[in-house]
Amino acid sequence: MKKEHAFIFIALAFVAGIVVGVIAAVFHEEKMPPPPASVRPPQATAPTQALNPEFQNRISSLKSILKEDPKNLKALIELGNLYFDSDQMDLAIQTYSKALELDPKNANVRTDMGIMYRRKGDPDRAVAEFRRAAQDDPGHVNSRYNIGVVLLHDKGDLKGALAAWEDFLKVEPGGPRAENIRNQMEKMKGMAK
User: Fold this and answer.
1) Domain span at 188
2) Residue 29 confidence (pLDDT)
3) Domain with 133 in it: what CATH number?
4) Distance (Å, rounded) from C-alpha 88 to C-alpha 111?
5) Taking the CA of residue 192 as centre, how many other CA atoms within 13 Å lie in the half-sphere pointing to its CB?
């Protein structure tokens, strides 16, 4: 009987040790500021979405369509978007590149590809893609917005970001995003002094 009590006592002590360790770790965890967006790991939802059977079936279906018709622009863009949504950066870039071979002035695709380059940690290439999109479509606001974001947050180029967002406001002078940009620009101008 004493051996059984000893075994139970050891098991309870082991479990209690684990619980105390977990509690101590939670309460003594150092709070670190979040890393810049360019170095943050992919969102937790991306891998979950990529593992979703319906999501995988859609990717397989689009790959089949493209095997039969490799120049199907709509399928290329949709497949690129699925890779984008699941944070599969290299596959998204490859697929968007193929779409841009067919439609080189598609500013939406080029902007999405630029975002993928940013997530990969290549802000220079991202800005180049955004600028090309803005050049190809003078009314494209998302490319101009993203130029400012990358210049400010990834490149630390305050003046460049201000110039990009001034350009953005010429194209989209109204709306909630324009108001947010104006507020951000005012703060930035105060920092630049």
Assistant:
1) 122-193
2) 38
3) 1.25.40.10
4) 16
5) 15
- pLDDT-derived band at 4, boundaries 50, 70, 90: low
pLDDT digits (tens, 9 = 90+) for 42-62: 444 455 566 688 989 999 999
Structural tokens at position 81: 């978007």
Q: Is the dihedral of CA 163, 166, 170, 175 positive or negative?
A: positive
Cα distance between residue 41 and residue 119, in whole Å: 9
Contact 143, 107 (CB under 8 A): yes
Tens-digit pLDDT profile for residues 130-140: 999 999 999 99
Question: Do 126 and 173 lie in a common domain?
Answer: yes
pLDDT at residue 34 greater than cutoff 70: no
Q: Is residue 178 part of a domain?
A: yes
Same domain, 131 and 192: yes
Tokens coding 153? 């947050």
Verify that 127 and 159 share a domain, yes or no: yes
Taking alpha carbons only, the member of 138, 160, 140, 139 closest to residue 149 is: 160
Q: For residue 118, what are the CA distances in angstroms to 12, 38, 83, 127? A: 50, 6, 15, 8
Q: Verify that 90 and 128 share a domain, yes or no.
A: no
User: What pLDDT is recorded for position 84?
Assistant: 96
In the chain, the number of structural domains is 2
